[in-house]
Sequence to fold (597 residues):
Amino acid sequence: MKNNSIVPAHLAIRAMRDNGYKNAAYAIAELIDNSIQHGSTEVELICLEETIMLNSRNVSRIKKIAILDNGYGMDSKTLQMALQFGNGTHLDRDKQVGISKFGMGLPSSSISQAKKVEVWSWQKSSTSALYTYLDLDSIISKEMDEVPEPVKEKIPEIFKKMGKSFSESGTLVVWSNIDKCIWKTAGTIIDHSEFLIGRVYRKFLHNKKVKIRMAGYNYSNLKQPVIDRFAMPNDPLYLMDDTTCPEPYNCTPMFEKWGDDAKYYIKYDGKSHEVIVRFSVAKSEVRKGHNPGDKPFGKHAARNVGISLIRADRELDLDQSLTSPHDPRERWWGIEVDFPPTLDEVFGVTNNKQYANNFSDLARTILKEADANNVNISQLKQDMEDEGDSKSMLLDIVLKIESNLSSLRKLLRAQTEGARTKERFTREQIIELAEKKATEATDERRKSGIFGTSDEQEKESESERKEEVKLELEKEGVLDAEEITDFVFKNNLKYSINTADLESYAFFTVKPKGGKILISLNSNHPAYKKLIEALDQNEEGENNLRDRLKNASEGLKLLLMAWARYEDEQPDGSNKLRVQDSRQDWGRIAKEFLNED
Fold:
């Protein structure tokens, strides 16, 4: 009889092995999904390794990976269905109320890492477990073309010795002939999986709905595990207590809530569905001291950068579409988007539950293109609705996130500037400050008979001048205005250069006040990030020094080219000559200020 399959199984199975799982940890998470979906309160990740001789030395190598749970278990029909690609009990949209989806998880995740997957499941007693399996070698050789009908088979004693969660009902999934896993030992598999598992299932773990044990054994000693611990929550919003975050924030939240939860109601498929967006930001004391980003808790936060997309209390993805990858301060904010499985098509949830493509595409591409082409947001939304593009339903959510993210970044910049200001006031060697050098150069110019507006103001009393300087700094929105004022007058400095959040096209402002020259750098100007911020950054260590120097060099060149274009656009005549003369005059003064002698 001819095989009239559209896609022959022995050919399709090869392609399906490369099914998009980022690594073994994500594939393992797929199995944990199934366990939680089927009522498990205890789940175990068990890794079994053996010792082999390699290059004249003994090394450990992974042989089997298993997931054991105490869930409801499966009957014969459900068990056979569970190993069929694209089949399952949660295919209908109205049944997608939990974390499972599409009926692809068990077989798809398993073959992404191993050539053989075996399943034992029981509903009354582990002594009456049903068993079936998939074997890729048999499928490729055409010896197997369907999932074998489940039969009663005893659970291997080796797993009964390692597992702690055997109960009246449950399921055991075992991968063997593992050839795709990049991690080769029980320890490395658990170490790499722990961070992800803790984050993906943080809500279940924090609310004590499920316990996840992670244990590794060697065939040589099944009584003593080489590694054995329980997963703890890993919260990228850092609002939970008792998490994997290092001390002193392992038992207390490192961040605090920022604003109220934003709630949206999306009308889809004839119903209204709630989406909740939450925001958090690092507490001010977290970023105090020297290089908080280089401390264990700072490095932990650096691994959790992105917008956490939560589907049915399970993290789908840590999306980085709206992040600035080279800015180390991105680690100090958290955003969470919580949506139900009924909005999978709107968010563009993938089969392997690793991405929300519509959300990412909107944030990464569509809005940026609209901005570049000066497309009105209202018009963009209307056009998307007219085309039946479901991403239009997410537009308000992404815009809200963008707006709040901008405010969060300003707050973090303010924290940074405050920390730098405090550091400057503790320096004993004032000679190191640029303000000191500029003051000395200005004194030399005054000795030559060259005076400015600020010099005339020095005739006023010092108390009046100090108050004038303080008020101007406060007006500009400069942090620690009073402390800066005291510092400038105490050290007899002519200049004070600070950072302010200015609504202006100018890169900086110059204000002669109280006999001083106050310079405010505009933190909203692109030149600030490109040049000043890149060079002046000191809180996050030296790991990104090369990138920062590159950005600073590029920023300086772009500033010079912007000036060149400004000159070029001046009409021939007195206007152009005046601009060129200004450049010459500024250059002469700069030469005096920069002269090391």
About this structure: Residues 236 and 390 are 28 Å apart (CA to CA). The chain has a mean pLDDT of 85.
